[in-house]
Amino acid sequence: MITQPDHVPERLALLPASAADRFLTEQLLKAEQVHGGIDLAKVVEPLPEDDARWAVEPIRSLVEDAIFEFRDDRTRADAWLAPRLHATLRLTRREAADKRLWTHLALAVAPDYVAWRHLSEPTAARPERRIPAERFQGPADRQCFSRLWWAAELFRNGPDYEPVEVACGNQDLIHTVLRRDLIDHRPTAQALVRLVKSGKIATGREINGLSVAITAAGATLVYDVLAPDEPRDPGPLRNWIAEAETAPPVSRHVLPDGPDEDPVPEDSVALLVDHFTELFETAPIRGRKSEI
């Protein structure tokens, strides 16, 4: 297993795909050898020097703690790291949409975490262990760190990260649902979390079947009308980001607080929980026996 590069930058930067490709070597994807870091530092695009958010040390500290804490069950690290990464790396959605930021984090700052979390287990069909390249440089729902940050952003309920822990504790939920546009509707995201938390849906087949049914039904029902959300005030998010310079490190033992935004209207969540429960009862779920 690889360790961190000899040279880890002190600040995050932007790493374009064209510059990153030559560092995604076969040795790295097999977790056998990592680049030294110096040559990679020469091809990045710097971020503003006066913004405290780009300091690397708080993120390095987080991933090292995650590796130690979850050394016996790496999958569980997602639910722990997602809210803490989101609260540490305070971004606007526009900033978070920049893949170059996540590529730099994965390849220059914490390639050892990517390898630890995503190196495949050997199987009869694929005996060679390997890290999918998309975990370093890939779409938002697959890249190692962007998937966690966006899961925290889309599943948090105002400042409350508890729904994020539930969502990221179910790999099928974040794999299946994160890439669908419907969870950008906050009541829908919270209703899905409650169905998982209550045990009404649990397996990948159940989550995928319900997601398909929700998407199909939403084409005609329009969830914004069925279960309205409150308009979001951008002020609390701006203030939360501005406080990044003086914010203390996130606790390793209790959940941090997110932006002080209004929670999702409870009536809308409750309505969708009932609606999705009805959809789930009739949704075609592969492997589920039909009642006679």
TrEMBL record:
InterPro entries associated with the record: DUF6339
Domain of life assignment: Bacteria
Protein name per Swiss-Prot or TrEMBL: DUF6339 family protein
